[in-house]
Specification:
Blueprint (H helix, E strand, L loop, with lengths): L1 H33 L5 H13 L7 H23 L6 H22 L11 H7 L5
Helix pairs in contact: 1-2, 1-3, 2-3, 3-4
Length: 133
């Protein structure tokens, strides 16, 4: 009996750790994109892993962060252009083309009803508050 209880406890602990690890990688990707010198390659790697993970693939925040990374990449290249430097236009416009699908998916996931059938958009007002009226 003690072995079975230990095994069940161990399984729960491992699955909880995996969920928190993916949540941490979403937060880490967001902080990498927000930093003064953003590392977009590492942020994309972290967020793509989180988007493919079963625990976080249906998380609205993960999809929002993916769009946010692309938006920051576009802004960085656009800033270079405004300062008279030569931007990498292929990177700039590829990032721009990816922003909307990620944000749209985040919005759709945030509008799904909970177990009681109520829609409680936690992230919509937080992230898109100034755009949605």
């Amino acid at each position: 009996m003690k072995r079975v209880l230990f095994f069940i406890t161990l399984c729960v602990a491992v699955s909880t750790t995996a969920l928190f690890a993916q949540t941490k990688s979403v937060n880490r990707a967001e902080s990498l994109a927000k930093s003064r010198t953003p590392n977009f390659a590492e942020a994309r790697t972290l967020i793509q892993e989180a988007l493919q993970n079963p625990e976080t693939k249906d998380d609205a925040k993960a999809w929002y962060v993916a769009g946010y990374i692309e938006d920051r990449q576009f802004d960085a290249e656009r800033t270079k252009e405004l300062l008279g430097q030569t931007p990498n236009q292929a990177v700039m416009y590829e990032a721009l083309s990816k922003v909307w699908p990620y944000f749209q998916k985040a919005y759709e996931l945030d509008q799904l009803p909970d177990s009681k059938g109520k829609v409680n958009p936690k992230n919509t007002k937080k992230y898109y508050g100034s755009f949605i009226r």
